[in-house]
Design a protein that fits this description.
single chain, 384 residues, alpha+beta, GMP Synthetase, Chain A, domain 3, 4 domains, 4-stranded antiparallel beta sheet, 26% helix, PSP1 C-terminal domain-containing protein, PSP1-like
Length: 384
Amino acid sequence: MACSSCSTGKDGQPRGCKNNGTCGTDGCNKLTVFDWLSNMSLPNGQKPFDCVEVRFKNSRKEFYRNADNLPLSIGDVVATQAKSGHDVGMVTLTGELVRIQMKRKKVSADDKTLPKIYRKATQRDIDIWQKCRNREEEIKKRSREIAISLRLEMKLSDVEFQGDGSKATFYYTAEDRVDFRQLIKDMAKAFGIRIEMRQIGYRQEAQRLGGVGSCGRELCCSTWLTDFRSVSTASARYQQLALNPQKLAGQCGKLKCCLNYELDMYLEALKNFPPQDSKLLTKKGIAFCQKADIFKETLWFSYKDDPATWHTLSKDQVLEILELNKKNEKVDSLEEYAQDNIDEEKATFENVVGQDSLTRFDRPKKRRNKKRRKKPNPKASSNA
């Protein structure tokens, strides 16, 4: 999604709205919710819902109560209530759809402790907010230097300023518990602001930093994925993927979220599929499953005495043999079933023109005459 200001400019270069995360139409961030009720009017006598949704720095959204019934619309920059001071964010959703979103996020609409919206942000509020956001990269770099000097086993990944510039929230990742009391003292002394440390997971860190995955596209977590479901190695086993940590792990170091995308299809296909540890009893010996293709419904078996030779069987054939084995009946051999699966190879290319050679337009190389002509011997002619 993109706003009208993000269309292509001259020479095919993206023009960009240059609003630094405060896009007027709110179409440049992954947290945008499509307001499908925007063109519908309320019934007569019904008051509009008094809560709105406000976004902060493209990774955090909260619900606020519009107690003063301010005329707010999507894209308005507002000053909201905070624990101390005020924060500045952008309205991303209004109306009845906010009620549905609060129900989805399990936030009670009757909660009296819900923070309030003070006012629409003035130009002074916006200037202070933009000034603070411009300082974030510099402060993040300096805070990392302080953490390294204190030899703390942690990684500071992002900084988020409060709208009034009185407080900064530092997001970090760490393997174990970190004693950052001295770090807070040093940073508060260096920056002159209140410090809040918030630990996040590695998936949330990749979500904030962004990047390009092994598929060649931007990370799902930084573009559209908002909820992180647990991913286990069982997802890779069901999809018959090699349990290679380097290929299954994403940039966050955890298993890729995309392993869950097709898992339901594999589980549905495996319902009537014979288990891969099944054994087929034949008169030539026991056969073990070596490989299976779930969607082609094909399995490959080999005898215990000859594991190098594989025989291709369909799913129905394997189920048929297993049913016979349950009745203590053995089939003659796997070759009888495998012969039925041999398809005659059909020519997919026919030479119509009669020119197959790829080098037909190359110049033929001239043969070099290796036999050199004998030069006449002047001595022999003079003697004669």
